[in-house]
phosphoglucomutase (alpha-D-glucose-1,6-bisphosphate-dependent) (Fragariocoptes setiger), 566 residues
Amino acid sequence: MIHQPSVEIVRMSTSPYKDQKPGTSGLRKKVKVFQQDNYTENFIQSTLLAAGNPKTLVVGGDGRYFSKEAINITANICAANGVDKMFVALDGILSTPAASCLIRKFGLDGGILMTASHNPGGPSEDFGIKYNSNNGGPAPPSITDKISTIASTLDEYYTIKPAIKLDLSCLDIKEFKVHDGITMRWFSVVIINPLDYYTQLMKEIFDFDMIKSQLFGKSRVTPFRMSIDCMHGVMGPFARRILVDELGAPASSVVNDIPKEDFSGKHPDPNLTYAPDLVSKLRSDPHIEFGAAFDGDGDRCMVLGPSGFFVTPSDSLAVMANFIDQIPYYSSNLAGFSRSMPTAPAVDRVAAAKGLKVYETATGWKFFGNLLDQAFISLCGEESFGAGSSHLREKDGLWTVMMWLNIIAITECNVKQIVIKHWTQYGRDYFLRYDYENCDAEQGERLMDHLQQLIKDQSIVGKRCLCGDVEYEVESIDNFSYYDPIDGSVAKDQGVRIFFKTGERVVFRLSGTGSSGATIRGYFSSYRAEHVIGDPEKVLSPVIKMGLKISKLEEFTGRSKPTVIT
Ligand code: VG1
Ligand code: CO
């Protein structure tokens, strides 16, 4: 007979923390901050209250340090707060897209994800908690604002005694009798393997047999070689299952596939700076045709072609948009596309050619949720290595890989050929992002205040500046607001945009995913209908110079160089 332990609800007094304000994607702080007395308990209690006391949840995360403790804390608080059923991922390993998949598949009320995504992990690094709603997507600002409001005055939370300690290492169902002194209810915990459900979803979208035979079948003259770097994040088991077990790629195609609590001491951020091993592997072995790297929680993906040919995420989105109607899952009811404001508008050109609408949102996946739910869009993405579609409500790194493999299979071209052909047809949006990490919070504020002042007095509009032999004229400067066409909500001050008469654009905004200080992001773009083969640094050099001059970035930060260029 299964033992069904009895637990009792207890009320605990606590003191509020004033800093529990979710950023672009959840609450991210140093592990030590989450380890403070009741810090995690308070945040989970506030989240459950703000979310309207969900009854069914999925819980898991990117496997980083402190995840298991946080999952257990969450289980105890959920049991005491009226949750009936909690699905927990095996070993706590749940990619962000797989969480979205499970919420939608089982019709759950929401999900609690232990992730700080691309931020480093380990005892002295970052931890994070994010709430997803019943559509499978990140909670909208209406909920995240409520979480911080509740957290700022919270003086009690509810938990159970004796405390539950979950064994996450095997598939299991556990039922607990929860008493509050008067009544009794059941709380069940189901440990599941998310791989099965996610794989099934991928099979609904993609023709596995076709991709398998085109890329890994015997008819191919030279075997297709790829290298997929999981960066010791959550994606190892997912990539191995789908790419190796299902599609038949050689086992060596997937590397760094064991999830580690500290991502092996590295920064699980898939870009040219933080994934140098993959880049040099492709550069030194021209026979590897395709490369990809994921971030810690598996929603971001960097795509590389032969010899390390780099595909900007803005171009990757545009190429996927160009081919999406060749995939039956999408072609029958193709809707529009969407991109975050800082993302270069390459996808807009594809939409125009296909007669589809494009929506420009604020930064952060939560802004795509309504558009996807109302079927306004089929595909969306951000310049920060995230793309996704109507199949889920999160960006999805492995889906991005599958899209590219599908495009390679149907075109019989490599990544570089596909992208160059795209530029030849549509022109090229040269794009670079400069990140200035670890600035002081005041430095970031002073820069944004200065830009805000320029918006107020508008004196730079019409100003001309000679760079080399080209004269640039500022056409407009503003701070982007996103108006949600579905619920009418407005997200203000989402990034300062400076447009030039000749079409160039510079954007500055502060990151909302850091755990301390400030990261300033500068985004520079310029379109060329012709001259599509060129070095972005050279092409964008005048735009970057103007942007840095107008913003006085060096004066405010003392930085002459960014920490990361993507
Ligand atoms: C960054 C990216 C943004 C992305 C967010 C969450 O936000 O710019 O596009 O949605 O990270 O991605 P910010 O505010 O730091 O610029 V993830 O993969 O870290 O959840
Ligand atoms: Co992520």
Q: What stands out?
A: The two ends are 58 Å apart (CA to CA).
